[in-house]
Every structure is written in C-alpha cells, then in structure tokens.
Amino acid sequence: MESFGQNIFLVHPEITLAVGAMLLLMIGVFRGDGALKLLSWIAVAVYGVAAVFVTILPADRLTAFNDLFVTDGTARFLKLVIYTASAISSVIAIAYLQRRNINRFEYPILIMLATTGMSMMVSANDLITLYVSLELQSLALYVLASIHRDNAKSTEAGLKYFVLGALSSGLLLYGCSLVYGFAGTTNFEGLRTVLHATLEQPPVIGVLFGMIFVIVGIAFKISAVPFHMWTPDVYEGSPTPVTAFLASAPKVAAMGLMLRVLFDAFGGLSEQWRQIIMILSALSMGLGAVAALGQTDIKRLLAYSSIGHIGYALIGVAVGNHESISAVLIYLVIYMFTTLASFLCVLAMQRNGDQIEDMSELGGLAVRQPKLALAFTLILFSLAGVPPLMGFWAKFYIFKSAIEFGGLPMTLLAVWGVLTSVIATAYYLRIIKIMWFDKSSQDFDKPDYLVNDVLLTATTLFVSPLGWIFLGPLQAAAMLAARALIGSA
Amino acid sequence: MIQTIVFLPLLAAIIAGLFGRALGVRFSQLITTGAVGIAALLSWIIFTQFLSGTTPYTVTISNWITSGSLSLNWALKVDTLTAVMLVVVNSVSSLVHLYSIGYMSEDPHQQRFFSYLSLFTFAMLMLVTADNLVQMFFGWEGVGLASYLLIGFWYYKPSANAAALKAFVVNRVGDFGYSLGIFAIFLVFGSVQFSVIFANAPHMAGKSFEFLGLHVDIMTAICLLLFVGAMGKSAQLGLHTWLPDAMEGPTPVSALIHAATMVTAGVFMLARCSPLFEQAPAALDVVCVVGALTAFFAATVGTSQTDIKRVIAYSTCSQLGYMFFALGVGAYGAAIFHLFTHAFFKALLFLGAGSVIHAMHHEQDMRHYGALRKSIPITFITMLIGTIAITGVPPFAGFYSKDTILEAAFMAHSQVGYFAYGLGAIAATLTSFYSWRLMFLTFFGEARWATSKHIQHAVHDDHHGHDAHDGTAGYHPHESPWVMLIPLILLAIGAAAAGFVFHTHFVGEARAEFWRAAIHPTKHDVLNDIEGIPLFWKWLPTAGMVFGLLMALNSYIWNRAVPKQFTDTFSMMYKFFLNKWYFDELYSVLFIKPALWLGRLFWSADKNIIDGVGPDGVAALVQLTAKRSKLIQTGYVYHYAFATLIGVIALLSWAWPHAGKAIGN
Amino acid sequence: MIQALAFYLFASITVIAGMMVISAKNPVHSVLWLILAFFNAAGLFVLLGAEFLAMILVIVYVGAVAVLFLFVVMMLDINFEELRKGFYTYLPFGLLVGAVLLGELAIVGLGWVTSDHAASLSRMPAPANVTNTQALGQILYTKYVYVFQASGLILLTAMIGAIVLTHRTRGGVRKQNIGEQNMRQPSDATALVHVQSGEGL
Lengths: 489, 665, 201
Known about the structure:
Helix content of chain B is 72%, strand content 4%. Chain B is mainly alpha-helical. The model of chain B is unreliable at 661-665 (pLDDT under 50).
C-alpha cells in the first residue's frame, strides 16, 4: 500500500487544478465579472504549474489511491496536451465574452473544473473513477455550452447536450454495472486479469455487452457516429470560444479515456472491440465527409469535420500496436492545434461586431484580410490532409500503421479513409473558394485582439510545414506514451 | 571559370525573366547578351587551353541525389569534347543574342525571349558539361523545354503552338528511349557516372540477357536505347518530323537551337558515350545506316521545298545525318568536327535567311524573292560564304569536315560504310543543288516580290503609291541593321576558316593529343586510313558538288523552264519529295488517327462509364447522402436519443454472435 | 418465505410504478408514482440489509428531489399532451427497438454466471460485525477518498453552473444591507436646524 504522501504526490496536477479552480472562484466572487481577464490569465498560470507537476512526475507506471488512479507516460502526454488546449481556450474567449456582455468570471473556472475532470479521465484506473471524472468534465461542459444564457441557441445547445449526455452516462453506467456484475471487479487491472483468464474461449456475453455500453458512452463523448447526433447542434449553438474548447481538449481526453478502457481494462477482448471500433471509425469518416458537404454554417461544418477526424484517429485505435497508438497521439495533438486554429479564425471573422457563421458571407475575405484568409486556407488544407501541412502527417501515420497491420478489413478501412479524405477535401475547398474567389461589397472588422492574433499565428505556423521541426520530438514523445500504454497490456 | 560559363546565362535568364518587365527591354537585352558573351569569351580561353594540351578535370558543385545505391553529384566535367561544345554553344548563342536585338526589335515580349534564349544556353551548357547521365538528362530535358517555349514563342499563332507541341511530343518518344537507356545502364553498371560506366564497359561486351525468349546483347540494347534518344533530339529519320515544323519559331531560335546546338546534342551524346558504342558494333551499324538514310532523305526533300527556312531545316537534318554515319563508322572526331564547322555555317545560313526575311517583310517563300543581291549586299555575301562552306568547296569549313566523313565511311571497308558513302555522296550532290537553288532563287534573277501578300501589305501600308511594273511592286528592301550584320560577318569568318584552322586538331595528325580520353580511341581508327583513299573516291563528292552547282545554275539561271519540265516529267517523284516522303501522312494514319480514335473511345468510355459510375456517380451519391444526413439531423432531442439507442442495439446485435455461450468459465 | 413475498411485492410495485411514471397523463401523478417507486426501491434495499442506502434513498430522493420535481412540475405550465403528440407515430418502431433491446438484455440476464475470479477480485469484502453505515463510511473516506473528493468537485461544478445559468441581479429590488444599516450615523438621517422664533422653516 502506497503511502498517503506518495498518493498526494501523484495527483499533484489534479490537486493544483482543483485548488486553482477554487482560488479563482474566490477571487471572482470578490472582484466580480470584471475580473474575467485577470482570472483567465491566472488560469493559464495554474495550467502552467500543473503542467510542471506533470513533467516532474516519474515516467513509470504508478497507481495511487487504492488503484483508482494511474499515472504513466500516456497519461502524462495527454495531460500536457489537454492543459495546453485548456489554457488556449481560456484566453481566446476573453474578448468574445466581453464584447457580447457574457463576461461571466465563472468561464475560466468552469474550464478548469472540466480540465480537472479530463485530467482524471486520462488517469482513470477504475470504472468508478472513469464515471466520476467523466461526469465532472461533462457537467462543466454542459454549463459552458449554455453560458450565453440569454441566447436561445446557446441554451438549447446546453440543454440538448445535457439530456443526451445524461442518456450516454446512463448507458455507460449500465455498462459498468454489467461488467462489475459479470467480472466481479471495477478495477482495470482486475478486469484485465479476469478477461485474460477467459481469453481462450469467447467472452461472457455480459462482459461483452457491458464493454459495448461503456464504449458507447465514451463514443458519445468523442462524437463517433452513430453517437454523434448532438455534435452539430451543440457546436453551432454554443458560443464560439466554447465550441473551440469542446472540439479540442474534451476530445483528446475522451480519446485518452477510450485508450485506457480498451487497452488497460479490456485488453483481453481486443479481437471483439477492434471490430466495433472499426465500424465506428468507418461510419464516422463516412458521415464526417459526406454530411459536411451540405452545410452552410462554418461551425456546423467544423463539427462534421471533427466527427470525421475522430474516425481517422479511431483507425489507429483499432490497429492497436505501438506505431498506431503513437500515430493516434500525434493525430490528437495535431488535430487539437488545427482545430483551435480553425476556431481562432472563425473568432476573427467578424462583421459589425457580429460573428460570421454563414459560409457564403466569407466572400472577399482574401482581398480584405489576406493574412486571415491565408491562415484559414492553410488550416483548412491541413484539416483536409494536403501534403506539406501537418494534417497530412497526422493522417499519413495513421494510414501507414493500418496498412502495415495488414489484413483485408484494415486495408479496406484505410482505403475508405483515403476516399473519405478526398470527399472531405471538397468542402474545405468550397470555403477556400468562397474566401478567395467570391466577391463581397461588405467589409470585415479588423482583428483587434492581440492575444488571439498571436495564438492564431503560432498555431498556423505549427500547422504549416514549419511544424515539421516539432514532428520529430512529437513522434518520440508519442512513441514513449504508446509504449507505456501497450507495454503494460 | 567553368562555373561562371555555366551559371552566368542562368543568372541572366532569371533576371531577365523575373524582373525584365521592371528593368526594361534594353537592360534585358544587354544582361543576357553580355552574360552569354562573357561565357563565350571564357569558352574560347578554355578551348585554347585544350588546344595546347590541358588535362581534363571535373568540378563538383554539390551532391544532387542520393537514393539507395544511386548517388549523384552536380559536377561539371571539362575535357576536349566539352570544350569544343562550349565554344560552339556559347559562340553561336552570343551571336544569336546579339542578332536578336535587331531581329526582335519590334516584338513586345523581348524580355521573355531573351530570358528563354539564356535559359536554353544554360540548359545546353548543363548538358555538355554533364558528368553523369542523369545530369545530362536534366540538360537534355532543359533544352527540350526551352525549345518548346521558343518554338511557341509567338503563342498566338496556332501553327506555332502546334509546332511546339509536335516538337515536344516527338521528343518524348526519343526521351523515353533515352531514359530507358539510363535505367538499363544503372541496372547493368550500378552507376550512372560516366567514369564508372566507361571503365566497366569492356567487361560487359558480349554479355546478353533474355527478353521474351530472345537473347539480347546488353551493350547493343543499351546503345540502341540511347540512340533512340539521340534520334529524337537530332531529328534523325523517323523522328525528324518535328524539325521542319519548328521553323515556326523566330529565326534566331532556328539558328541557335534547331541548327547549331540543340539538335547536335544527340551527336554529342553518342560521342560522349563512344566507349559504350565501341562495345556494341551492331548498334554502330544501325547508327550508320540511319544517319546515311537521313542525310539522303533530307537532301531530297530539301530540293523541293520553297520556304527558305524549311530548305535550311532539311539541310540541317541532312548534315546531322552525316554526323551520325560518321559516328557509325567510328570516326567520332570527324563527327564532332562536322558538328563544329556546321554550327558556324548553318547558323550563318539561318541568320542570313533571317536577314532576308527581315528585309522582305516576313515573306519566307523563295518564289517571291529574286534579285536581292543588290538590295542587301552584305547579307548576300555572307550567305554566299555559308553556301560555299556547306557545299564543301575547298578550303572552306564544310570541305574539311564533310569530306573527312565521307572518306572515313569509305575507308571503313564495311558494307554499311560503303552504303553510307554512296548515299552521302549523292546527298552531297543534292546539298549543292538545293543550297545553290536557294541562293539563285533569292538573290539572282528578277524580282518577283509583287506576288507576295506580305510585300503587298507593306507597300499598301507605306503608301508608296508610284506604280511599278517590274515585279518589285514598288518595294525597297533594306539591309538589316549592323547589330544583325556583325554576327553574320563573324559567322562567315568562322564558316570560311574553321575547317582550315582546326582540322589538324580535330581529325588530323594532332588529333590524338587533342582528344585524349574525351573520345574513346577506336580499336581500328578509320581516320588513320583516310590518307590511303583512292583519288577517285576522294574527289567524287567534290565532283558531285560541282555537278549540283551546274544543275542549279542550269535550272535557275540559264534555263528557267527546266524545273517546270522536270516536275512535270517526274511528277510522282517531285510530289514524293515535296510532301517529305509522306512521313507526316504516314504517321497520321499509323499513330495519330488510331491514337485519336482510341482517345475518343476512352473519352466516351470515360465519360459514360467511368465518370458515370466513378466521379459523377460518386458525386451524385455523396450529395444525396449529404441531403439525407441533413434530414436525419432534425434538431429534436428524442430523435437523437433514438438514434443513439439504435446504434447501441445495432452494436449489441452485432456483438452477440461473438460472445461465448452463457456459461463462460 | 416472508422475505421472498416481500421481495416480489416491492419489486412488482416498483416496476408498475415505474411504468405509470411514463404513462400517466398528469405530470403531477407521474411524480407521485415516482415517489412510490422510490419507496419500494428503498424497501428492496432493506431486504438486502442495506438500511443506510434505503434511508438515504427516502431522505434524498423522496424528501428532496421528488418534492423539488413536484414544485417544478406544478409551477411550469407545460402542456404534456402537446409534447406527447408524436408518441403514437413513433410507438410501433419504438416498441420494436425496445423489444430487441429487452430481448438481448434478457439473454444477458439468463446467462448470469459470475467469473471464477470474481470472488478473489472482490476488493471490499463486507466487514463483519459492523453496521453497513459504518462499513460504507469506512471505505468511502479511506479507499475511495479520491472518488469522494471528485464527487465533491462535481457538486461544486453543479453549484457554480446553477448560479451561472440562473442567478440574475435584478434592478429595483430593495435589499437589506446590514452593514450599511450598522454604519449609519445619526448625522446621515437627521439634521439639526436652528429655527429662529417666529419664522418657521
């Protein structure tokens, strides 16, 4: 049994975040809504401190709190990614919220609470931790989605998210109880032992069904088809900075949770879940590519785009070896930055103080704001996976791992992935076409938020071929993380 | 020094091409002409160094490609062969640049033109200084590109576009052979470095590989593939059809690319690869036969053409044939010597023709010329020197080089050698005939200008007004400006003296010290034997030349009814020649029409079947699915929840058969 | 015997009440049915020997949650008939889907066999000689303290969320400000005016 001190040491990042949230809350209560900017920047500092704690954690796999919590390379990798996304999401919202008079000081606090949940998710080592951390994250997100409470769309988005999220939580809990009922334990290591023991024969149907329910619950969070239905509505309805957050950090965290559950808990059932994941992946890629074609709202379109991207990442999950998991992790990082960059562009596209969300209104952007148009073009090309950009490498590693895995189904999945990428390119190109070739008499607002511009420049540079300099270290880190995950299975 | 020579034109091309508009016409002209001029001066310095016996060297610029066992450097190989080519390329190029300043003075896109010219010069220099096959291929394609751009320089002329395209496509056939040759060499030798290949070539002699059950000699196969490439670039019989059409480009281009330099690239390549060809006698025989046939064929066609540039174009084709059969009998030095002299007199003839065309207001048909010697005397005199040189009157340049080739062919004492000598001698006669025919039609007789539409236009535009019933239509041709005449004069000096001055080094006693390892010493050097040629056979071509001159005199000066009678009597033959042996028609039936038919077939299949099922069908399907999926997204929470549940059930139902029986363990 | 009887009684009433919750036309009735279902579920807990959970269920769910529901339902004027319009159009398909799910889950239920290892893996054997309240408390604050704290964070989040989404500072409301009241000086409200006799103010 670990000492209490060691337990505390291992959860230092989470404690930092929780205490940080409460600290922010105190400051906020006393300073009022005017403190939004201050709180956001303090939040960034807190994420920084938490990230430092993550980096000084030992690299080995260590459990704490009676095996409820685990920290290893994968968890550390994902936590750093999540903190980065959360920090960026906190600051890019300031100007937007202030301008629309929804500058609630709770905004960065809720993000931090959600981040605490996410941090716990990727360190979950027990079905109970899984559920509790997922709820912590989700609850904060529900509130964030409807934070523009005087806006019908925002409240509708929050409510939809909440109701459907509750449904998925119910399914998840049901699955957990089935698994507990049939395997007799909620602990991931325990589950692995049990399932490994039954590896020679087909799994007990209760465990299998339980696993499917759990996968469905998590698939809802990563919005994999057919559990994606909430995504377009919530993305469209939520305030844009919230959408940016929803699309980045929680996706990474839920993917991390998926990896944890599949490899740590249900590693023994890989033959079974592989096929399920492949189905989800194929459907997500297909729908992500096709459904976006008919969209006119940029945020809805990006929602479908994110559905498609999750499909690609799931290919790597389905393959399930070192290369593919490291590819998934690389994919998540690149996806996270690209998504944030794309939403930064959407945030910057304003006319008379209003957000432009209808694609057709983007005409003439290239003439009036060439830098923004160029950045958005690069980002869209990266999302489409056009070669010199980072999005290409993300897809490339995934497809490569799938092809090397071999076998007809996996090869077909990779081919399907390439095909849907091609289809998806069509709608990215449509935006680009509108920006560069359509004309418009109306002018755009000049971007006047320095922080957003700096972040947009930075993320765009990361997405551009300049990002290659990060590719090497990123690969090395992702490989370490992947080894931590699979080496243990 | 060699780096300066090679990269100065590139620099000039980039400056003139990218910033020409900003820097102005005059600046572009000066920088390109100046750059190539400096390169030419330096080339002569290098050439004189080699005349006095400098050792060959290679300058490595940088590593170019490293892939597996393939490792290439950018390297400039300088030996005698390169030095000769440097002189040819840079001298002609600089003179053509200079000439173009006058010739193109009215063109609105001169910056582009000069940029292309310099780019071409760079590519050609890259080709001749290549130290491996791939770098040579780079230059090879570079000159092809520049040629395409320059033929199609007047892109608003459909015929120019078509000609550019034709040149490009026909050259692709040759380049395909060439690239296959490079692949084969890499396969066999494991390297594309000349030094490595040549060192190992003797070991490969006589080895064969099996292909479709046939035993094929490796070296023969490689050499034939390389020769296919050379045929394309050097317009040898079969792949020659692009060259006459290429005359659609501006005349300086014809002089530079399609007479003096690019078309001789094939000859250069074969000479460079002489160590390989020495190991493949069968391939050499093929080269010899093709060369001889080309020399003969082009000469016959040349006699019947009326467009001044086309006559010279066929003449070029014919002279290239000489060079090839010289290579074929192993007289590499003679081939390069002819290349060298030919560059001078053929560039001279082209530029002279350009001067005539300039004077005649873009009229190119010789039937509308006549009596021009008084109007444009300097052009006349320089062209006369060029004609004397090409027909082979001693001691002008053509005499030394061409007669050496014919003597070498004869003294090779082989069947193909005699065959080549025979056709070559006839071709020499015909060459003399059509060259003098050109001169007589252009500069002698009475003026026939009135029938020319170009001249009528010019006169009409100028409102000269006064009636003239003497065939001049009141038009007064003017001598070209000095900027055009100076290159003519310089080239005329070269055409007159190049053979006499350099023949000892190229083909005479000093040749061994001069060439050294640049050209593979043949096992049996035919040039050693040519001293022993019987007098009759030595002077037969010269006699033929005189005969041709007399024929031309008879037909076009003394008795002008002769051509008409001749064409009436031998109308079949005349038509055959006039229509260039029906090569274009043959290709049209053999390749183009089937290709078009096949293309249409594929097009319709593509449109109806592949597009219908493929892109169009998929696009329609995708749009349909997009609409459907939009319908599903109703916005109602219970629909979403329902979809989620259906998803769950589908997954459960799917997983059910995968579970074990209820009683697990 | 009595135990079995009691189980079937509680269980069947729970199920019936649950069905009535979703089928009752009057929403207030639905909530009352829900309360009945809670009570019977609590009874089931008692049968299992989990008195603490039974009490918690009654106190929290019946005492707080259900009553809150009742308030909300009675205060909101929702026409449930309107909401239920689509009910019959979707009923057949819904029933089909429900039946399939039920069938599959029934199979799971029929195949109830716990793993051999389950017993050995059970981490929290019920401690002897302690009431289950005590037992729960013991593991909740020791073994599961991590999750317990996380639950606390969830509640905090919920609280923040509720305030963010509903709390409004309304204008025109006079609130008692005790601090202000205490700080008041007599001089703030009264003024001593020296009135000259015979003049008035």
